[in-house]
Amino acid sequence: MDGMVGPATPLDTPVHIALHTRDVAEAKAFCRQMFYGPLQVTPIGDLSGFAFSGDVVMLGPVTVGEISYGADMHVNIGDLETAYHVLAPLTGTLRSRHRGATVLADSTRAAVFRPVGDIDLYWPGDCRLLSVKVERAALERELDAALDQRFVSPLLLGESFDLVDGPGRTWAALVRLLHAELCAENGLIRQPRMASRWRDMVVSGLALTVEHPYGVDEPAGLQGPRRPRTVKRALDAMHAEPWHQFTAAELASVGGVGIRVLQESFRQHVGMSPLTYLKRLRLDGVHAELSRSDPWQVNVSEVAYRWGFTHLGRFAGAYRERFGVSPSQTLRDRR
User: Fold this and answer.
1) Where does the record place the HTH araC/xylS-type domain (predicted)?
2) DSSP state, 307?
3) Which of 89, 109, 136, 143 could make an S-S bridge to 129, C-beta 3.0–4.6 Å?
């Protein structure tokens, strides 16, 4: 697989997918496909008003959905692992619990979620919100560039931020405009150069908006240790060529350390081993490509091979475990 080029589908190609349904199972499947596999949606009380509306746009590492259920729901999500997430209500009040912190999010305050830790949501029927997913690597690279690696991973982010004043207001307006433009057919953001710039603004704007202890004048004891350059080199290599058949020894060589040292550094600073991270990176890449592809133009095996999976049986099992559906189902849902 070494000589293969990267995925054929440009990751900055905007995608718009919408669903309006009164079927709870259909709504759950849609949210699992668009956002996360380990997601459970349970109705609370009367379902007569249930009317799910999901309007989702994807642009590279950023996914934005305008979501509402029309009835009171309990939503539980397992570890996000490869993404950071923001919920910004447009109407109503959402109650969330994550990593021991409870946040009441409404039109004045957003809730922020890190990659590690279950998320428990009470989502009332009158709550309509913007659900913003930003890939973990994209946000961490942005902060890495700005702060010369002075952070731990996952990022030590605050659990919420203000939407009425300061940078939060600007970022929320930018996300709303991004969503509206990508829902339209002929907006300026549909131009590739504009799309990539807008993507970068959303990611860098979030890095500047969320609360974190990585400023120059943070109190003693809050400053996180630097991510080792050995880890960063291995991550850079995997993100540059995720389809390459890396071994643990090869990644250790890239990092300039022994295998055991690299594995321990990854567990400490990334939360998993290098090859586990690589598999999840590939799975997310396949999922993103299948979610954007024309089912009449591609097939699952081609996409899987392109992302470095050589054993289709094991790939299909890992994909279903991560996203809750088969890869072929993801592709069929694009029809």
Assistant:
1) 232-333
2) T
3) 89
Measured CA to CA, the distance from residue 177 to residue 171 in angstroms comes to: 10
Select from 93, 205, 68, 195 the least CA-distant residue to 138.
Answer: 205
Instruction: Give, in order, the Cα–Cα distances in Å from 308 to each of 147, 238, 328.
Output: 32, 11, 17
> How many Cβ atoms are within 10 Å of 310's Cβ, its own excluded?
10
pLDDT, one tens digit per residue, over 222-268 is 233 456 778 888 888 888 788 899 999 999 999 889 999 999 888 88
In the chain, the amino acid numbered 280 is R
Instruction: Name which CATH class applies to 229-332.
Output: mainly alpha
CB within 8 A of 180, min separation 6: which ones?
none
Q: Please name which of 303, 284, 279, 296 lies closest in space to residue 332, comparing C-alpha atoms.
A: 296
> Full-prediction pTM beyond 0.85?
no
CA dist 31 → 68, 133, 207, 240 (Å):
11, 12, 25, 29
First-last CA distance in the chain = 30
Q: Kindly state the tokens that stand for 165.
A: 């004043």
Q: Looking at domain 15-209, which CATH architecture does it have?
A: Sandwich (2.60)
Which residue ranges make up each domain of the chain? 15-209, 229-332
At 33, the amino acid letter reads Q
Instruction: State the DSSP code for 324.
Output: S
If DSSP codes are grouped into helix, strand and coil, which group holds residue 300? helix
DSSP E strands, the chain: 15-21, 39-43, 52-59, 62-68, 73-77, 83-91, 94-98, 101-105, 109-113, 119-123, 128-135, 160-162
Count other Cβ atoms within 10 Å, centred on residue 222: 11
